[in-house]
Write a structure and sequence with these properties.
Keywords: Signal. By secondary structure, the protein is mainly alpha-helical. The protein is built from 8 helices and 4 strands. The strands form 2 sheets. The chain has a two-stranded antiparallel ribbon. The protein has a two-stranded antiparallel ribbon with strand order 2-3. The longest helix has 17 residues.
């Protein structure tokens, strides 16, 4: 990679390549979310996340996300995990916050969508899919 002297500008294509490389290096420098989740919650050590392990992860995640200890998650606490539309859809009683019940239901729904082979567990391959990534995002 060539660095340009101050005052010189790179083409948009080069800037894009530099940003892409920076993103890739950042992603490679930390353990994957899926691997971290499995390491922490795969209680029986079988290399997959079953529904009960996912529920345990969701309960812990809810407590971690609930920074103000109100036993609800507001839009600010949810942050990047859900779009506004996803948040509204998960807010079953339309009170502007997610209760633990609503959050667990959301995680369960995402788990079921990611479980492509319907065996009641999520493998590394399933966690790598778009649906698996959506499941992981709500737990971060």
């Amino acid at each position: 990679m060539t660095f340009l002297p101050f005052g010189k500008s790179a083409s948009g294509k080069n800037v894009f390549r530099i940003l892409l490389l920076a993103c890739a290096l950042t992603a490679l420098s930390r353990p994957s979310v899926a691997a971290s989740l499995l390491e922490r919650y795969d209680a029986n050590g079988n290399g997959v996340l079953d529904a009960e392990e996912a529920k345990d992860a969701a309960e812990d995640s809810f407590d971690d996300i609930d920074k103000d200890d109100t036993d609800t998650l507001d839009r600010e606490e949810i942050g990047f995990r859900l779009t506004d539309a996803e948040f509204a859809a998960a807010d079953l009683d339309h009170d502007g916050v997610l209760s633990e019940y609503e959050y667990i239901a959301l995680v369960k729904n995402r788990f079921e969508k990611a479980d492509k082979d319907h065996d009641g567990s999520l493998s590394q391959a399933e966690l790598a899919t778009r649906a698996g990534q959506a499941f992981l995002r709500v737990l971060q």
